Amino acid sequence: MASLSSLIKCSSVLLVFSLLVFGSFVVDVSAGDLNQDFQITWGDGRARIINNGELLTLSLDKASGSGFQSKNEYLFGQIDMQLKLVAGNSAGTVTAYYLSSKGSTWDEIDFEFLGNLSGDPYILHTNVFSQGKGNREQQFYLWFDPTADFHTYSILWNPQHIVFSVDGTPIRKFKNLESKGVPYPKNQPMRIYSSLWNADDWATRGGLVKTDWSKAPFTASYRNFKANACVMSSGSSSCASNSQPSNSWLNQELDSAGEQKLKWVQKNYMIYNYCSDAKRFPQGFPKECNVA
To answer: Is 112 assigned a catalytic role?
Structure first.
């Protein structure tokens, strides 16, 4: 169901256009009160929206974690959120922030932050599911302490590609390679989900390091959400915005500077790439790995 804020925004439409293949869309630019965009879905009070909607916190203790989801569903968009991750000894914890549809052939675009012992770096785990198939993991260290302050984690999802970015620096690109027989997320609207949960059976050093519950509760914080995106409402959508430039994400490609930043991150901070894991794919790498 569309929120009141979404309906108000739609009334200020200055530009409406249709995309031949993908139908019509509504651009919803959201920022400010997190109560307007998200709802707490689980955690029995461990998730809170505070400071007049400016801050959302998730917490985890031995009894339970917590989570939230967006009120809107999106079909393409530029999604930004600032996160500050669990500080100190976060081993065994996972902070997941992702887009996902429903059903057995779901689409999904994942950020997952795998906690670690104090002083050891977080691992940023990314994945892309299309039509229920994932196994496209890439993992990174970050070039800063993600627990000391808020940093912006972004997903650009348009008909051409999916780009994962951190503080405006692209770290991963997943191209639309349907022409090569690779399914691409393009038809299923997705909600934003996030959760903080215990995964000490695998999250830190393959499960060798367990969660230290004496350090609980563990807390992750969120603020400054922005969605310049196409919103699905009542089975249909249309795309509009207050100014022509804000639609640029629909056709946005990485420029030469962005491609250089992407290469820099992948050279210096990537620690796992499924497209380089020959032991995992003895019969040959997935099709997308063979396309430059």
So the answer is: yes
Active-site annotation holder among 54, 112, 259, 288: 112
Known catalytic membership, residue 108? yes
DSSP string for residues in 186-252: -SS-BEEEEEEEE-TTTTTGGGTSPP-GGGPPEEEEEEEEEEEEEEEBTTB--B--SSGGGGGGGG-
Of the chain, the percentage scoring pLDDT greater than 90 comes to 77
Return the exposure string of 97-117: e unless at least 16 CB atoms fall within 10 Å of the residue's CB, then b.
Answer: bbbbbeeeebbbbbbbbbbbe
Q: How far apart are CA 79 and CA 250, in angstroms?
A: 12
Active-site pick, 54, 73, 108, 137: 108
Q: What would the pLDDT profile of 183-231 be if each residue is shown by its tens digit?
A: 999 999 999 999 999 999 988 888 888 999 999 999 999 999 999 998 9
- Judged against a pLDDT cut of 70, whether residue 27 lies above it is answered with no
